[in-house]
Amino acid sequence: MAKGETTKDAILDRALALATQSGLEGLTMGSLAKEVHLSKSGLFAHFQSKEQLQLDVLETAVARFIEMVIAPALREPRGEPRVRALFERWLEWEDAKFLPGGCPFISLANELDDRPGPLRDRLVGYQKDWMQALATAARIAMTEGHFRADLDPGQFAYDLYAIILAYHHFSRLLRDPASEAHARQSFAALLAASRS
Amino acid sequence: MAKGETTKDAILDRALALATQSGLEGLTMGSLAKEVHLSKSGLFAHFQSKEQLQLDVLETAVARFIEMVIAPALREPRGEPRVRALFERWLEWEDAKFLPGGCPFISLANELDDRPGPLRDRLVGYQKDWMQALATAARIAMTEGHFRADLDPGQFAYDLYAIILAYHHFSRLLRDPASEAHARQSFAALLAASRS
User: Fold this and answer.
1) Which residues of chain B does A114 touch, with a Cβ-Cβ cutoff of 8 Å?
2) Residues 6+ apart with CB under 8 A from A141
3) What is the ipTM of this complex?
4) Which of A88, A146, B72, B162 is most buried by a 10 A CB count?
5) What is the pLDDT of residues B54-110, one digit of tens each?
6) Which positions ≥6 away from B34 have C-beta within 8 Å?
């Protein structure tokens, strides 16, 4: 059982890496089986359908994001230090080696925005959770006196997300070496405008 | 000849609409032929290959963007009014009825960022042109005295693009009715921080 679970986790990590490059629709049982050196029937023992595999890949992405971005940031002091940690970790996430095609949430948003269904609903739910987490981090920085009392936390979350989306766009498409400096400058300006 | 050209333009507009939803890879000669009520051989009379069709669709998107966003903005007074017009038109572009899947440049960036080739090269070229056009608009606003003299025009272009990317992301994926208000608030803050 424990061994089976490990195998499944390893398959899902490989599937997540593939999905960042080919999309979830491009992730077929055949291509994944080849990639992890299993027979297709061996793979079906873990995932009963392509839909289940896709949902499991999305859950894997969320688990990795919590490990790499959210959990370490929550260990930072409340307020601006935690907001900074969220930004730094999120930027690292965008370049993570285990995500060769970049952030799965951004590419899945583009893949799924016109495709209603359980997968899209799950992604939307996670995006809302994440926006609320960012707004909460801003709200804590307000109560700590780091951010001004009339800041709009939802707007802050939107502006922070915008910086990461631009980083994803310009670093991945244009391979622009200035992308990171631009993202850091945008974040510094956002912090400056948010401080009390 | 004139009639043939019109037909080709009409086919390309339909192909562009389809590509915003299914991606350029999902745009097959078969699905397009069905959509425009032509035989596949009738379609091949216009486009010699799928690659040629994809390039033509990208050129069509660029032509529409120039018509809808760039040309009208260039008729506005130099400086901040022109920057505002670029933003307003760009935001309209994101919701244009003839682009049912949203901005083709954003979805193509996600589709092509890991796929080297002439199509990706062409898209990168257009993105660089557009970033330079935005930076130029900011530079003109500096020489007109609307924007401060130490503004970084490249950073301004990045920040403006970030706002549109976030609008695309949140309006399309989350169908969030607050997206437009957030985008406008971000743009107002960017203008305020850029003014002399």
Assistant:
1) 21, 100-101, 172
2) A78, A79, A80, A82, A83, A147, A194
3) 0.92
4) B162
5) 999 999 999 999 999 999 999 999 999 999 999 999 999 999 999 999 999 998 998
6) none
